[in-house]
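User: I need a structural model of RagB/SusD family nutrient uptake outer membrane protein from Flectobacillus longus for a docking pre-check later this week. Nothing fancy, just the predicted structure tokens so I can convert them on my end. Input:
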Amino acid sequence: MKKKYILWTALCSMFALASCESVLDKTDLGAADPDLVSGDSVLANLSLNYIYNQNLPDWGGYTSISALGSSTYTEESYNQGSSQNKYLEGAIAENDVTDFGTALNATNNYGKIRTINSFISDLQLNPKMDAGAKNRLLAQAYFFRAWRYFELVKLYGGVPLVLTPQNAVGIENREGTFLPRNTTSQCVKQISADLDSAAKYLPATWASPAANWGRITKGGALALKGRLLLYAASPQFNPTDVNTKWQAAYDANKAAYDALTANGSKLIADYAKIWFTESGNTEAVFVTGYNTSVGDQQRRNSGWEASNRPKYSTVSGGGSNLPSWDMVKAYPMKDGKKPGDSKYAYSDLLFFKDRDPRFEKTIAYNGCTWPMSNVPNNRLWTYYAAGKSVENGGVNFSFTGFYCKKALQTSDVAGSTLDLSNTIYSGTDWQEIRFAEVMLNYAESAAGVGKLDEAYTQLINIRKRAGIEAGSDNLYGLKANMSRAEMFKAILDERQVEFAFEGKRFWDLRRWRLLESTLNGSKGTKVQINLKTTGVPADFATSRDGMKLEDVYTNYFTIALTPNALMSRTAINYLPKYYFFAIPTSAIDNNPLLKQNDGWTNGAFNPLE
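Assistant: Understood. Predicted structure tokens for RagB/SusD family nutrient uptake outer membrane protein:
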């Protein structure tokens, strides 16, 4: 995908300013350049774009140093091989989540906050700039300060609130005084205030939408506030189910939904094409832009394409986010009912038959049509013959038998295929918040305050877009008259499917305190589709592409499921203390006022306050 402009990487070509180099290549990357924020709005925008560059999340929702949130931390895609995945196995120690930041470093969370605070402070002192322009710039900076603190709070609970440029990142204020941790509720209040300030001055839509694609809008700020307060109301932060927290989440998420819909936000009709529309994408709310432009200052490629294709279909990476059998089984049937409860028969051998249409658009499986690498009618074959995978001659094949094909550029969803040499140059944009999430956040918070009809409406509209059958009751497979608890479960199940491989599942299980009950004891089920040893045509390898897939499976394949066989190391063992990670020892050694979280060594801080 190509775009004329991208917010931070096209700065030189947009403005042709000699000072551009000082924005992107400064020796002091810990602060925005005061010279830029003291002049006109064009130069201030250059400094703000540096803040965008520092803080926008990467593909898959990575926003932290430890890259938490990957599908390999949940049942979406089990870890394979002999390397240890501490987050999946439940072997996390005090110093494994290092996102807190203790040094004067622009790449840690407090370094990024210092940059934002410097920008805000310098801009507020600027007497020359038009008030409207200044407020719009400040609003974007407030959004990213809120974003950074939200990321910290969801890891650790309350953290030190630093709202002015400090001397030592995350340790001292300007007076050289060490800073203690603020309570979690104080942090949530400040993050909310920053997002309110952002929403007050941000436009609903930017002028010249194509040139400003990816800029934060009023709806984006409101949507993040909705996500924040939904976390605050969830059992991780609200184990006693305090109703006022659910009411705050409901008010915020309904406000975000109403503001976005008033400005034209809606679901894109085809689930498979969500990722392949840029300016004018009605589902995109909070976006990180990538491009395929050539040139040192303009190229910013997404790694998603190359990392998720089969290894033999890309020149770099490949084979990431391999869907598990658990993920395959999570999809309902096309009437919206669970396998076994549906009017459509289900069998493990014909797992692909009559499923929710999102299944076909997300998971590539043995025998499916997957047009890629300039082969429009390509069929993917991952079965075993004589004990060996036939995929790519038994080399670099999927250990689960499946691939994630969400957001990969293929001719059926993007209009053209990428050839092998260009997979590393994908410009597909990441949508950290899309309108479907706003709808489901609204549904969940509505359920929290007992407004189940509103929750039904949002769930039904999500399922309608997916292509699930309406049914005679027009409930799209949902159970009628659900209780509050049943509705919560239905929404969580919907999120698992709707946001598969989008970095949401880990955080959903964590905020609902379901990591142990969902994952503990498992090592993943190994799936192997085997070619029968008798009755198979001699020309099967050349004739299989022309056969009806259901007949191929029924006549020539068997399926073998081996529980607890995917992970070669220990089974998952999440512990209750992982719902709030430990403050790294180095941070505590650096600041005597920092207290460790309850449950960890010498823990005395209650993250629930």
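Before docking, keep this in mind: Confidence is low (pLDDT under 50) at residues 1-31.
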